[in-house]
């Protein structure tokens, strides 16, 4: 059993549940016809659901941050440093990075702040930081903050914590159309864009690891930086990159937001292709330290965490250098890291000598 599985987080179980839900959801698609709309069925199981309405394609996402807000609460208690702004950015990043992975640009973002008691909102420092972080992330995403919901759920959410989630609507540029992997071709190149660290995936395991360290979140990593401080580095928001690709008239054949399932997410697109990765980005220290302390080998680490690659852009070979340039223009590091080949669905990490089979990622 994986280290995640020991914590009660089994992706095989969760993914099966998602597939069941997709079946029920798909049976409601015909109800859109009364509104003059049409579901883009190829988006079922993708990072965002897409529908066509009045000649435009809209993308919809609901996403949650997970348990990373617990780390920010513990860091405030143990280190005396307020990092709630950063988890606000994380939450928005989890939402909008999924939106733009189908080629859409977010236009409206809604917030969901669930607490175990209404008194949480009386802490003006943490609340003010959270609101400022959410606001900043909306600015980075060039999307309006529409509204939200802030229930108090005693007995469901612990008294000291807050669950962060939200939703967004994105608009697919008319000249692009939805990017759902149907244009992937043998020979396309894969550009991996660096992450900043943990992002929104892996917080439960990170908390478990911290519990076993003598100094907990305050433990110094080899560089001297404290573990908890690095865990709370905010996620990269990749919307500016997708917008820049549009401005440069570079339409990817596919896009992938690399979160849960790690590098296995590279084979999320439909169709039988082998995704061969020859060059990996530098692994952030916090992820190598987390993997080492959790006793995770390379195969499990790369199949669970982003390991330094937060987003993937698939393009025709002649456009790959331009994607790297576009990323640099947005302040992001990217590299041409691999290629798409005809063959059995899989992800091969050539430099590390292991392969993920197609049946190791079943999301739809």
The number of helical segments is 11
Residue share in helices? 25-40%
Beta-strand fraction estimate = 15-25%
The count of strands amounts to 13
**How can the largest sheet be summarized?**
7 strands, mixed
Radius of gyration over C-alpha positions, nearest whole angstrom: 20 Å
What is the CATH superfamily label of the largest domain? PurM-like C-terminal domain
Structural account:
The chain is of the alpha+beta class and 364 residues long. It has 2 domains: 3-172, PurM-like, N-terminal domain (60s Ribosomal Protein L30, Chain: A), CATH 3.30.1330.10; 189-360, PurM-like C-terminal domain (Phosphoribosyl-aminoimidazole Synthetase, Chain A, domain 2), CATH 3.90.650.10. 32% of the residues lie in helices and 23% in strands. It has helices spanning 3-6, 11-26, 68-79, 84-100, 124-141, 203-212, 227-231, 239-247, 285-294, 298-302, 320-329, and strands at 37-39, 49-53, 56-64, 105-115, 144-149, 162-172, 189-194, 254-257, 273-277, 309-315, 334-342, 346-349, 354-357. It has a 7-stranded mixed sheet. A 6-stranded mixed sheet has the order 1-2-3-6-4-5. Helix 4 packs parallel to helix 5. The longest helix has 18 residues, at 124-141. The protein starts with a helix and ends in a 7-residue tail after the last strand. 46% of the residues are buried.
